[in-house]
Write a structure and sequence with these properties.
five-stranded parallel sheet, elongated
């Protein structure tokens, strides 16, 4: 589980964000705070993996809180959630390495997609074996730190990352059934992701003809 600390000066907003996070599979809220001072103390006590950080806090500006977290040696990731649209705030947050910058107000689906994208990048980094620039680009393309092409509705970034990994690691090519078995999803679901990768030029499909029946569609990474 990815442990999340929610920091927002508004008690009701913090409650809403807590509810949103709790609905996303693989995430749990381990604490909520309403001031910068409490956020730094909670990070020390709870060791969260991810902090959802508001910038407009009653005692400190959120980026100052982020700087304190870093100077104290906390390696938690930070996703800024704020109404601050100033370019300086955005630039400052990016310079300090936030994984995403989300403007209020937003709905559950928006946050869910961002959290799943963050989780996919986190998983990729934990297993990453960097052999060259392509591997680095592949990991960064899943992250929340920059614009990422949205998946079609109903498709999960986490599942897409798993299907991609299975296809990349395959010796030769895979059928939808083989990919489904490797990832742990249905054949229909696996084929949907495989066809999506083909549609955006990241994979290619070929046909294998048998003695009878329809030819089998075989997928290979790299369009």
């Amino acid at each position: 589980m990815i442990r999340v600390l929610v920091v927002d000066d508004d008690f009701m907003v913090a409650r809403v964000h807590t509810g949103f996070v709790s609905r996303v599979e693989g995430f749990e809220v381990v604490g909520t705070c309403h001031t910068g001072t409490d956020a730094v103390a909670a990070a020390a006590a709870l060791s969260p993996d991810l902090v959802l950080l508001d910038l407009y806090l009653p005692d400190q500006f959120g980026l100052d809180v982020l700087a304190e977290l870093r100077s104290a040696g906390h390696d938690c990731d930070v996703m800024v959630i704020t109404a601050a649209k100033e370019a300086d705030a955005v630039r400052g947050a990016l310079r300090q390495g936030v994984v995403d910058y989300v403007l209020k107000p937003f709905g559950f689906e928006d946050l869910r997609e961002r959290l799943e994208r963050y989780a996919a990048q986190r998983d990729a980094l934990s297993d990453a074996q960097v052999r060259g620039q392509e591997d680095i680009d592949r990991v960064l393309s899943r992250g929340g730190g920059g614009p990422v092409a949205a998946l079609p509705k109903g498709m999960s970034p986490q599942t897409a990352a798993l299907v991609e990994s299975a296809l990349r690691d395959a010796r030769g090519n895979l059928s939808a059934s083989e990919a489904a078995e490797l990832v742990g999803v249905s054949r229909v679901s696996a084929r949907r992701y495989l066809e999506y990768f083909c549609s955006i030029g990241q994979a290619e499909v070929s046909l294998r003809y048998g003695s009878a029946g329809r030819p089998e569609r075989r997928y290979r990474w790299g369009g």
